[in-house]
């Protein structure tokens, strides 16, 4: 059996934006952190600085709400932040910028379909399966880094995108992708990759929706069924 050290992956959602607080769909809109979101980023960065000194690389979505969250963590950890557009949130097409109520009025029933079917996309948007594929391509590139075994990589991204990546890495059937949802602002997912007895690399879930006890208003950053907010 391969004795290569485990690779640890932390997936961190960005801090709160005003769109999160008002239940407006962001998708790939380049929104900014709210005052509360900045405070959340500072709190989670302090936590990482105390408990996650093994982080050797930080890769972030290039959208500001994620990149700014990552930069706060990078300063605390002393690690430069790399930006990758493949880590962006789900492209939501005509839904972007609209509230849940507005979408439900103009496209009745479609949000429910989207929440429960990973192969369905909003008009002009992308499916959860497509999001998982582009997110996973980042991880596949990172696996080529010989310095990863025995250390941690931090990816800073978005709720819906992180949920899709988690399902993909764990080899969850597409019909069950939507079981991962509701990732709160600055909550994280912990995954570990270790060689299996057959020599293949397997991913194992350590935590989903991990967060600080004092992370701030619990409901403000809730995703809606793995939504791209």
TrEMBL record:
Pfam short name (any one): His_Phos_1
Annotated EC: 3.1.3.-
Gene Ontology molecular function terms on file: hydrolase activity
Keyword Hydrolase: yes
EC class of the enzyme, as a word: hydrolase
UniProt-listed SMART domains: PGAM
CDD domains recorded: HP_PGM_like
Keywords linked to the UniProt accession: Hydrolase
Gene3D superfamilies, sorted: Phosphoglycerate mutase-like (3.40.50.1240)
Tree of life domain: Bacteria
Keyword check for Hydrolase: yes
PANTHER family xrefs: BROAD-SPECIFICITY PHOSPHATASE YOR283W-RELATED, GLUCOSYL-3-PHOSPHOGLYCERATE PHOSPHATASE
Protein name stated in the entry: Histidine phosphatase family protein
Organism: Corynebacterium hansenii
